[in-house]
Amino acid sequence: EYPAIASPARTQAILNRYRLSAKKSLGQNFLVDLNILTKIVEAAKIKKTDDVIEIGPGIGGLTEQLAQSAHQVLGFEIDQNLLPVLKETLAPYDNIQILNQDILKANLPKIVAELLPGDRPLKVVANLPYYITTPIVMNLLASPLHFESIVVMMQKEVAERLTASPSTKAYGSLSVIVQEMNQVDISFIVPKTAFIPQPKVDSAIVRLTKRENRSVKPFDEKRFAGFVRGCFMHQRKTLWNNLLGFFGKADDTKETITKVLNSVQINPTDRAEQLTVTQFVQLCNACHDNGI
Ligand code: SAM
């Protein structure tokens, strides 16, 4: 019987034996605090009936804890050098599959249909590589697959942007676009001392679930995202100026924008950061309804 992979002594022993040094370029920071891993699995509410997708299993510390609670775990690890390590560390488990693939290039619906048959509830759990946190999260959110929840570790600063409220420093297009479709919560903060090697900043576990009861929805999610980015384009400009930048400065466009802002009771001199998510949806839809 081995101690958990994620115990500091065993992790160090594995790294030494395989002469591995964590690759900074791939965002390799291994979790060595079993208590944190347990809390991650709890935050994801993993049950024996759930299939789990893990991004970046590393040397298998989180994967092992997931396998003990889940039906099946499917891991995507880009670093080929870690495959023999994972093969050994995860040998005691018969419910783990590891693919040597870049998660940003993987055809998830096809792979899930092949490797996780049975239509079980699907959850994503990961200690994300920090250099591609945002593209990974955005890809997952845009996936045609239904994830019951996405529970992922990321830099605290990115977590704060994802969960930010209007009129705060961290509130921006990312906050609006993600919160429009999802309930986003920080489950807990993870100090940098929980990793080998230690990252420069603290981390946070973020839980994303689809919002069920939205009062208003954008007429088109992709166009909504573009619209929101347009509204935040120049931070110091007013909403009015950013809207002219986005839709153009023709006289009839100005007239329409004035009319639309009036109809949704938003002040043209406001800044994008003052608008709630619902106000963005109302504004975007009203622009569309008025032909701009
Ligand atoms: N899960 C391990 C843990 O918690 O200790 C390791 C997490 S480490 C922060 C991120 C992992 O993601 C590394 O193992 C890295 O090699 C892997 N990775 C980086 N880019 C990736 C990509 N594009 N696709 C899949 N895995 C990736």
TrEMBL record:
Q: Could you mention a single GO BP entry for this protein? A: methylation
Residue ranges constituting the Ribosomal RNA adenine methylase transferase N-terminal domain according to the UniProt record: 36-212
Top enzyme category: transferase
Q: Which InterPro entries match?
A: KsgA/Erm, rRNA_Ade_diMease-like_C, rRNA_Ade_Mease_Trfase_CS, rRNA_Ade_methylase_Trfase_N, rRNA_adenine_dimethylase, SAM-dependent_MTases_sf
* Subcellular location per the Swiss-Prot or TrEMBL entry: Cytoplasm
Annotated S-adenosyl-L-methionine binding sites: 29, 31, 56, 77, 102, 127
Entry EC no(s):
2.1.1.182
Kindly indicate whether the keyword rRNA processing belongs to this entry.
yes
Query: Keyword S-adenosyl-L-methionine: yes or no?
Result: yes
- Which reactions appear under catalytic activity for this entry? adenosine(2085) in 23S rRNA + 2 S-adenosyl-L-methionine = N(6)-dimethyladenosine(2085) in 23S rRNA + 2 S-adenosyl-L-homocysteine + 2 H(+); adenosine(1518)/adenosine(1519) in 16S rRNA + 4 S-adenosyl-L-methionine = N(6)-dimethyladenosine(1518)/N(6)-dimethyladenosine(1519) in 16S rRNA + 4 S-adenosyl-L-homocysteine + 4 H(+)
Keywords, in A-Z order: Cytoplasm, Methyltransferase, RNA-binding, rRNA processing, S-adenosyl-L-methionine, Transferase
CDD domains reported for this sequence: AdoMet_MTases (cd02440)
Q: Name one GO molecular function term.
A: methyltransferase activity
Q: What does this protein do?
A: Specifically dimethylates two adjacent adenosines (A1518 and A1519) in the loop of a conserved hairpin near the 3'-end of 16S rRNA in the 30S particle. May play a critical role in biogenesis of 30S subunits.
Family classification: Belongs to the class I-like SAM-binding methyltransferase superfamily. rRNA adenine N(6)-methyltransferase family. RsmA subfamily.
By its UniProt entry, which NCBIfam families does this protein fall under?
ksgA (TIGR00755)
Q: What is this protein called?
A: Ribosomal RNA small subunit methyltransferase A
| Organism, as annotated | Lentilactobacillus fungorum
